[in-house]
Write a structure and sequence with these properties.
This protein is mainly α and about 290 residues long. It is about 60% helix and about 10% strand. The protein has 12 helices and 4 strands, in the order αββββααααααααααα. Strands 1-2 form a two-stranded antiparallel ribbon. A two-stranded antiparallel sheet has the order 3-4. α5 crosses α6, α5 packs antiparallel against α7 and α7 runs antiparallel to α8. The radius of gyration is 22 Å and the shape is elongated. The protein starts with a helix and ends with a helix. Keywords: Membrane, Transmembrane, Transmembrane helix. InterPro entries: DUF2301. Pfam families: DUF2301 (PF10063).
């Protein structure tokens, strides 16, 4: 059910990331947010039947990309704050991927090797860095349905709480780091699992929106490894192989994000502005857009 809900939400509206089109049929007074960042506070008003947008404290900000994109609720452009947010979003993914790969690589080194010992001494730090990077990306991710975004963030927060509780109450008294404790005690997956559920939701969104094979495969690999460890139905050899696949796909996934145009991770800005409007303003805008059809 959750997968179906996420699938339905991410494919609406239908005209996402469209190429620039002629705007002669669309009044530029309707949601032309070239100076508006949707993650910053903004002021929206309706006057003389048109929508006017002005960012608070960003009046000097200009569009970094002169291309005008046609959104569902009006034209929009990419401004510097959009670029910063997308770069931070992608940087969070790189941080999460790099931390995970470094931590997981200890499974492939001899136990008595210097590199393995160095990694194991810093597993808690790597875990914290990876969780922080994922949290940053979930804060900045653009999903049209707010409830889905909040659900992913709630899963992340629940996973952070569970990880801290497990580390303080169980792992530390046992003289182990958090990751080693989870390895030795599979039931601890219940406490850290929500964090990885949030990661799974993020890669599922990326795979669905952009058709990325590595993201689609990760959607199945991540829960398979965790559930296999939790239930004990997966032997160590299979888990190690899936872990190696997870590492490789995660690196490819994070790296390929920087090959995408900035606008891809912005989505349709007009949708986010529409969602930020008061109900009366939404009705006024919809009525005006309906009038443009005739």
């Amino acid at each position: 059910m959750a997968v179906q809900l996420l699938s339905a939400a991410l494919v609406v509206p239908l005209k996402l990331h469209s190429q620039p089109k002629s705007l002669s049929a669309t009044p530029t007074s309707i949601l032309y947010p070239s100076r508006v960042s949707f993650l910053s506070s903004s002021r929206v008003s309706i006057a003389n039947g048109s929508i006017k947008c002005q960012a608070v404290g960003d009046s000097s900000q200009s569009s970094i990309d002169p291309t005008v994109y046609r959104g569902v609720y009006g034209p929009w452009t990419v401004d510097p704050s959009d670029v910063r947010e997308v770069i931070l979003y992608r940087s969070g993914l790189v941080t999460a991927a790099a931390s995970f790969v470094f931590a997981a690589s200890s499974a492939f080194f001899p136990d008595n090797s210097l590199l393995s010992d160095l990694i194991k001494q810093n597993l808690d730090l790597l875990y914290a860095l990876g969780a922080g990077g994922l949290g940053l990306s979930l804060l900045l991710i653009h999903i049209y349905v707010t409830e889905i975004k909040l659900t992913l963030q709630a899963l992340w927060a629940l996973g952070i709480f569970g990880s801290l509780a497990t580390y303080i109450s169980l792992a530390q008294p046992a003289g182990e780091n958090l990751i080693q404790y989870v390895i030795d005690n599979p039931t601890a997956v219940w406490f850290v699992g929500p964090l990885f559920a949030a990661l799974t939701g993020l890669v599922f969104k990326e795979g669905l929106c952009y058709g990325k094979l590595e993201a689609g495969v990760l959607t199945f690999v991540i829960p398979s490894v965790l559930l296999g460890h939790l239930t004990g139905l997966m032997d160590d050899g299979v888990k190690v192989n899936l872990l190696a696949l997870w590492m490789a796909l995660f690196v490819i996934f994070a790296g390929r994000k920087f090959t995408q145009p900035i606008k891809d991770d912005i989505g349709d800005k007009s949708v986010f502005m529409f969602n930020a409007l008061a109900e009366e303003e939404k009705k006024a805008l919809i009525e005006k857009l309906e009038q443009q059809k005739f």
